[in-house]
Structure formats: structure tokens, C-alpha cells
Hints:
Layout: E1 2-8, E2 12-20, H1 21-35, H2 51-58, H3 64-82, E3 94-101, E4 104-112, E5 118-119, E6 126-128, H4 136-149, E7 152-155, E8 166-175, E9 178-191, H5 201-205, E10 213-219, E11 233-247, H6 253-260, H7 265-297, E12 300-301, H8 306-326, H9 331-338, H10 342-346, H11 350-369, H12 376-389, H13 394-399, H14 403-424, E13 427-429
Parallel strand pairs: 6-13
Antiparallel strand pairs: 1-2, 2-4, 3-4, 5-12, 7-11, 8-9, 8-11, 10-11
Amino acid sequence: MKYTTKAAEKSTVKITLKFDAEEFKAAQTKAYLKTRNKFSVNGFRKGKAPKNVIENVYGKGVFYEDALNILFGDNYGDVIGKCEKKFTVVGDPDVSVEDFSEEGVTLVAVVPVKPEVKISSYKGMKIKEIAYTVKDEEVDAEINRLLDRNARKVPVEGRAAQNGDIANIDFVGTVDGVKFDGGEAEGFDLTLGSGQFIPGFEDQVVGMNIGEKKDVNVTFPENYQAEALKGKPAVFAVTLNSLQAKEFPELNDEFIKDATGSESVEAYKAKTKERLQQQADRRSNDATENSILEAIAANTEAEIPQAMIDREIDSLLQKFEYQLMYQGLKLSDYLDFLKVTEADFRKNYEEQAKKNVMSQLIISQIIKDEAIEATEEEVDAKIAEQAKSVEKDVAEYKKGMDPRQFDYIRNDIVITKLFNFLKENNEMYKD
């Protein structure tokens, strides 16, 4: 077998594989041995007919297609391996037959490859640094959530429903007099003012009395997830079965100590603010790194093959599918509810996927250009840190590590060093 490679358009490489008559003949024999059990020939038990007999009965080219697949399958991987320093394959090849005869076969594979990345600048730029600061209102909101989790529900009698109440309702929704999927329930607990239902619904339940029936008129938002209901006026026949109100505990040192273990309200507030600020710092760092990559991307050219974008869409879609699973939902059911196909739903991720792939390419290129790597000392220090956090001996901890953990640690160190380098070599500013 002889092969040649040639750069083609849109970040692809054309690989030409040439096989002589003997190689093609050997592949046909291999195809015969692999598939002979599929053929029935009078006078022979199934799978026992000689190759030439099968060819006489089914035609001379009966094994050609399988032989071509064998030639490609047995040799494509070797060619890719030999060319790994020249290009990196990022998707499946598009294979065609260029020349075909008893004298030999020529196969052509057009394969998507990692594109050339041209970054005009990644140093000396002015880039915005993002910083999130925790406000007292956020701490107060955490306190309120703690009180809410520890609140008692008490029955309400002798008054109408008001915001904050838990209204137990039956409802049946119709559009143009016709019921629709998901628009009916009995004994549903709705916290009034929570915004759980579409705008206008909860406001009209406020003021109802227990046992009262009422038609609630609303309009579905234009951006509602169900295509058939977008912008449509609807009527919900609502019955208010019962009301409950939340009775909150008193916020004092005794409650805080029982609920959280902190010694006082002020101590818990300080601890909460520290925790929220740590979360805010992580968001700040992520947002700043994205800001850096966006600035570099504006100065970068790369012809990204669709295979890389599709693979990133697969990853984003899988993450979304996992999120649905945690809520007890399946992606197929979710798409049925939205009345959209998976192909159309994938289009929602196209732009984000392109942006993510470009960021990955930029990161990879700068790491290569600046020869950024993780030293063994840095890896060992990170492992020691992790071992200490779980109170284990370093040697013992290291023995239990999966090889992928070592790769993750190395990659984490390299990425951290990369962004430290970029922050140091660009002018970072805050608003």
C-alpha cells in the first residue's frame, strides 16, 4: 500500500491510499472468509462453498465492497498514526473510491483535522477584569432562606388568600376552549408570589376564599417553551381548596446555634458572607478568564471544521441531559413537550459550541507557543495538598489514584499557569 496526504479546504486533509492487484485480491479472500456463512449454494452446506463457486453464483464482484472496507479499515489507522506529527484528526473520514479495477484500487479519505490557529496578539492588550462583591442583601437573602427552611406551615382560616400563602388548588387550563397538555392538576400546592406560574396567574388567586371557584385569564409569554402555546390567551378554571401560611422562627442567637452550630447571628452572617465571597471569587475568576479569551479570539483566525463543533454540541447536550436526569426527566420527553426535534434543538447550541472550540484552540496554541508545562514538583505538591485535605499519607494517597487523576492535576496546573501568564502580560482593568 502506498499513500499520500495533501491539505484540503476547510481544515481537512485528503489521504489517498493506493493498493495493487495482489493486495486487492488478498482483501477479497479475507472478505470471503469473513462473510461466506451468509451465502447459500446448492450442493454445499452453508458457509462451505468455495470462493470461486460463490462468485460464479452471485457475481464476480460479490466480495468487492467488503474487500474495500477491509483495505480501508486495516490501513487507515496506521496512516493516521504515521502522520500524527503532521496533523491531528478530529472527526470521521469521508471515504470514496477514486479508481477501481482488477489491477488495483485507489481510495480517498477526506478527514477533518485540527485547524491552524493564527493569533495576532495575546500580550500587551487592555482586558477587563471581572470582580463580584457580595452585598449585605445577599447575606440577608441567605438568612431568609434559612428561616424559610425552618418555618412551620399553619392552616389559614377566616381570610382571603394573600402573597406568601401556600394555596392548595385544582385547576384546568384551556386555550380556545380546548384542554392542553400539562394544564390540569388537582391538589397542587402553589406559593403565591413565587412566580412559579405564568405571569398574572398567582395575582388572580390572591383574594380568593377557601372553597371559591374562579376563572383565571392569562396570556402565555411569547418565549414560552411550548411552541403551540406561545402568546396564546388561556383560561384556567381554579378551585381554592385550602390555605396555609408559613410561621417563621425568631432570628436570634439560640435559633442560629440550633440550626447551624454558629455561636451567634453575627457569627453566622460573617461565615455566610465569607462563603458567598468565595463563590463570588470563583465566578469572578471564570468570568475574567472568559474575558481574556474573548479578547484574544477577536484577534484570532481559525477555520474550524464542523466535526469539532458537532462534537462540542454533543458535549453541551449531554450536560443538559444530565441536568434533566437530576430532575427526573428524559431528553426525549422534554423535546416532545417542546414539540421540537433533536436536530432543531441542537441548533440552539451552535454558537456556544463555536465559541467553546475557539477558546480550546486558543488555549492549546498558547500553551504550545509558550511551552507551558507542569513540573513533577508541582504535581507532587498538588497531590500532597489533596492528601492533606483528606488526612491521608501522601504515598498511600498516591497509590489509590487513578491515572486520569494525574492527567487532571497536570492539566489543572498548566491551565492555571497559562491564565496567570496572560494576566501578567496584559493590562487588566476594572470598571
